[in-house]
Amino acid sequence: MSKRKSISTHDKSTKRARPVEEEEDSEDADDRDQDVERLCPQVVVIDIDVGIVKSITLNNFMCHANLGPFAFGSNVNFIVGKNGSGKSAILTGLIVALGGNAQATNRGSSLKGFVKEGESFAVVSITLNNIGKDAYKPEVYGQAIVIDQKITREGIRTYKLKSQSGHIISTKKEDLVTILDYYNIQVNNPVTILTQEMSKYFLHSKGGAEKYKFFMKATQLEQMKDDFVHIKSTKSVTVDKVEQHSECLKDLKRDYLEKEDRYKSLASVNEMYTKLEELKKQMAWALVGEVEKEFEPMKEKLESDRCATNKFNEKVDEWKVSLSLAIFLEGLQKSIDANRRQLQSMESSRSNRLQRFGDQMPALLAAIDEAHKKGQFKHRPRGPLGKPCLKDPELALSIEICLKNLVQAFTCDNYDDERVLKSLMTKVLQHGRRPAIITSRFFPKVHDTHRRAVNHPDYPSVLQALEIEDPVVANCLIDQRAIECILLIKNRTEARRVMQGRNPPQNCTSAFSVEGDQIFTNRSYTADQTRANFLSKDVEEGIRSMETQKVQAAHIQQQIRSTDKNISENQDLLRRTQTEQKTTEVRHSQKCLSRHSAVNALSQEEDLQEIIAKISSKRAEYDEARAQMAELKSAFENAEQEYKQHKQLINTAAEEADVKKEELSKTDQEVMKCKHHEKHYEERRNAHLCSIKTLENNVASKEKELQESIAKAKEICPEQLVVRRTARSLDVEITRLKVKIATQREHQGDREEIVREYHEALESYANKAQQIKNLNNFIKCLDRVMDQRLYAYTVLRRFLSARCKYYFDSMLAQRGFTGNMTFDHKNETLSISVQPGQGNKADLNDMRCLSGGERSFSTVCFVLSLWPITEAPFRCLDEFDVYMDMVNRRISIDMMLKVADSQKNRQFIFLTPQSMSSLPECRRIHIVQLNDPVRGQTQMEQEEEGP
């Protein structure tokens, strides 16, 4: 029975022209029309089953470029067309799209033969109905399932299963097979789809075996029979395995009984094993106790050495402080010397401003003038570029930071002049850093910066703040630094407001404050330099500042030496006081032990209090001296910060450092002394730490050994035991007991092996016995089910045979034929005899003796008799009226319409080359009229379809 339920719907009527009157008896035609009208009332409610074909489309399939789309009705469909119009192509496409192979179509041996000549692939698209409670995954596919199949010229097929909306759900054939099984669509069942070739084969079949096979396949009894054969084969294999396992079970039982006897003989050894296990537990915890005895002294020594480390740390820290102070003094002395050289340079620049750019700058300019006079330069080089005067001296620092190394740089017109200038610098500037050389063509006029320059009503640009008389210098600074786009804003806060506001000045790249800070639109940078070294006019103020710093540095240096001396004296006093305190404490302890010296003890106590008071006083003086030293050190750090601000000047005077080495030798010796003492105590501390590290490793190793021993002991005996015996005595007793057990093993074998073999043999025997029992139960159950299924199969075969005979006789009677259908299930044959007209049953003839039309009519009757006993959502019949005359054809159509009327929830597709214009209009009948083929295609299609 079908698992689907019918649903009601209205099929769209297909309007067509009134039929042309054929040459037949008018009275018979009227009777036939009345029968059809009874079958087709004006308003028909049709239950449409899921799985019926809604439409089909063919592209490049067989001899047709495009066929369709063809829409089908829910009940009766006639596909009418001449040979070559594509009827068989539609049926073949239906079989192929639903997963059938090429042999099932009887149109070729390979799928690649279905691709139209000259094309690379063919596409067949089928839409199946999916409406109702029995719909297949309606939440995924919707109300229709679209099956697209593509066949390439190489014979490769690909599937696309789509939803009603066109979304691809799957591309696997397994999913298509699942859908076909769900709908009970049997593509290879000749009753579901009876092709023209299969119909001809049945018409011309001579033996009853083919007809019987046709019947078995149509009713799926053949599949049931094949399943029975497969199950019998499986049962035979299972019976053979049971016999093999039964023989194996005997051997397992014999082995099990032998192992059981040996296992029972071990009872006498159990007591020795119990005692051995107890000794092993005691042995495990005895070993733990011995490791603990070794671990505790090591741990105590490690703690003692760690406490002694503090003494070395204090000594090392003391010399580190001394070394840090000595290094600080050495750096301070070097900074003082560098500032002294800078002071000398500034004093010498009182008379010559060019010396600010270097002591040898006047000599270099003189050499350039001399070379120019001799004609060695095509154009005299310009420089240093920082010579132009400032309109506002307060902006000297900001402009100097803006120009950076361009302040001391030179510019040449060409590379020849550059080479000459480099040679002059090599001769004159033998020490120190040489100025940069910029090679760029000289122009007599200043560049026009009107469009790209920044113009602010309140603040000047760098170009506007310089008094530059030489256009070459101005052009070089414009090209290299874009000074026309940089503003000078004295106030740092105002500069940030202007640059980082909503509307920064147009064409302005950045701005500099009077302190030298550089401000961009999205960030800013603070200057490291505090005063101008090259562009400042007030040299006297710089000299006075340097001299003041020199006096302050000398004063601070004197204070540091004095403080250092006081600290050294206080440290000596502290050590002496601590020694006296310890001595006094020892004496006081000794005197307190004497019961008869109470008066002397009181005197000593007063002396002790006096010494403690002195110690407290000295400690206060020491702390005060250290605080004073910290203040002086802070003052030194401030002075050092000021000296660092003269970094650029210090670099230019680096070559004079050798002259001051003698002045620093004493400081270097002090530093070396401090380093020596620090290294000495550092080495002693490192050696001590190394010893501690080794001891720590030993302690860690011993602790790990202890933990491992405890873990092993807990594995043997989870509860800790108090063992008074030594591990050695326990080991001796364990050895003695093992020897005794080994002696027993020589007679009985290994105990653990015997126990293990016994349990393994018992388990193997029990498992095998259970397996055989399960297999025997399975065979019995299979025999019982097989008997039931075989009985049901026999009953079903007899029932289906009787129904087929009944329907066959009924169909023949509508034509006035009599017939007989004889099933021989033993020999698997089916004989069909038909007597046209009202004759005697004794005169029944074999179908081969009938005319072509009578044989076709008999075939239709046989197929129609199988339809009621075959479940499928649709049936297809190709050229059912082949060889029929008009009378047989009319009766066959009437019978098929009656069958279709009795199964309104099924779909019927009939293919015929004959006109169906004689049928009246009916909503339940849908006619698909194919176009006549073109002449060339007609011949090719006829060759494929046959006569």
| Number of beta strands | 24
Strand order of the largest sheet: 4-3-6-7-8-9
Structural class: alpha/beta
Beta content: 5-15%
Task: Based on the coordinates given, report the CATH architecture of the domain at 7-189 and 877-945.
Answer: 3-Layer(aba) Sandwich
The biggest sheet amounts to:
6 strands, antiparallel
Biased composition (Acidic residues): 21-34
Pfam families: AAA_23
GO molecular function: ATP binding; ATP hydrolysis activity; damaged DNA binding; single-stranded DNA binding
Subcellular location: Chromosome, Telomere; Nucleus
Task: Tell me what you see in this structure.
The protein is α/β, with parallel strands linked by helices. Among the domains are: about 250 residues, P-loop containing nucleotide triphosphate hydrolases (Rossmann fold, 3-Layer(aba) Sandwich); about 60 residues; about 100 residues, Orthogonal Bundle (Helix Hairpins). The protein contains 24 helices and 24 strands. Strands 4-3-6-7-8-9 form a six-stranded antiparallel beta sheet. The protein has a five-stranded parallel beta sheet with strand order 10-22-23-5-24. α12 links the parallel β12 and β13. α1 packs parallel to α23, α9 packs across α17 and α21 crosses α22. The longest helix is centred in the first third of the chain and has 79 residues. The two termini are about 40 Å apart. The N terminus and C terminus are likely disordered. It is found in: Chromosome, Telomere; Nucleus. It holds the Pfam family AAA_23. Belongs to the SMC family. SMC6 subfamily. Keywords: ATP-binding, Chromosome, Coiled coil, DNA damage, DNA recombination, DNA repair, Nucleotide-binding, Nucleus, Telomere. GO terms for molecular function: ATP binding; ATP hydrolysis activity; damaged DNA binding; single-stranded DNA binding.
